[in-house]
């Protein structure tokens, strides 16, 4: 085929052979090229989103920052519950003695006591024996002029006597309110000095009197005393009747 038609056919064949070479060199042909306009298909649809990638490794800690300014103090919180008591600690050393306190008012002490001795020989019978040697009579509850003890504090009392016996027998009685309470008898042995004694507990009321006297006639008044022999009489309060004070 000759002439202009044959020339056009040869040009198209040459162009078709050249386009595959260009396609092998570029994955996506340039849309501006003539081949792309001649052989390009319809535009595709956008692809789906891919899956998220995995978290990366934690980075290294940065350097420690500078200390910040102190903040404003917050309000006081509520008081917490009382905790369990702790174990007892070790015992401490003794402290120093404190200063002496002022003298307080002492409780009233009830006192009543006497102790007396005989100074005369052979006292008269049937009358109180007057013990005029005073050993103790601070409260003056014993009257040496009468030989009687006068109760001023009601309560329980103890009385005792120790008599020297000489020259004749002795029979004495301890009296309370004109009534003999106990008796003591001692038979004198010739050329000898003997002893007679007695004791008793008595409850006395205020105003009661107690004394010692020879019982019977004159043959029984051998109570004796001198500078080396004593005959004594004593008594004291054991405890008072608190209901009466």
UniProtKB/TrEMBL annotation:
The keyword Secreted applies. It holds the Pfam family Collagen. Its main location: secreted. Residues 25-102 are annotated as: Disordered. Residues 1-24 form the signal peptide. Residues 107-244 form the C1q domain. It is found in: Secreted. Keywords: Collagen, Hydroxylation, Secreted, Signal. One of its GO terms (cellular component) is collagen trimer. Residues 54-70 have a biased composition (Basic and acidic residues). This is ADIPO protein. The gene is Adipoq.
């Amino acid at each position: 085929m000759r002439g202009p038609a044959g020339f056009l056919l040869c040009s198209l064949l040459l162009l078709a052979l050249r386009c595959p070479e260009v396609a092998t060199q570029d994955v996506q042909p340039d849309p501006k090229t003539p081949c792309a306009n001649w052989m390009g298909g319809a535009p595709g649809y956008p692809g789906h989103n891919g899956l998220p990638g995995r978290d990366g490794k934690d980075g290294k800690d940065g350097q420690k920052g500078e200390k910040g300014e102190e903040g404003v103090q917050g309000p006081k919180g509520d008081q917490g519950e009382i905790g369990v008591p702790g174990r007892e600690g070790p015992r401490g050393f003794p402290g120093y003695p404190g200063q002496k306190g002022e003298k307080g008012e002492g409780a009233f002490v009830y006192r009543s006591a006497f102790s007396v001795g005989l100074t005369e020989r052979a006292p008269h019978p049937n009358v109180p024996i007057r013990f005029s040697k005073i050993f103790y009579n601070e409260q003056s509850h014993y009257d040496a002029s009468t030989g009687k003890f006068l109760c001023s504090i009601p309560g329980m009392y103890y009385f005792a006597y120790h008599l020297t016996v000489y020259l004749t027998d002795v029979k004495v009685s301890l009296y309370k309110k004109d009534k003999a309470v106990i008796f003591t008898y001692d038979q004198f042995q010739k050329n000898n000095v003997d002893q007679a004694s007695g004791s008793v507990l008595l409850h006395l009321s205020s105003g009661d009197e107690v004394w010692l006297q020879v019982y019977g006639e004159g043959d029984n008044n051998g109570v004796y005393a001198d500078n080396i022999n004593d005959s004594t009489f004593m008594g004291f309060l054991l405890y008072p009747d608190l209901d009466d004070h």
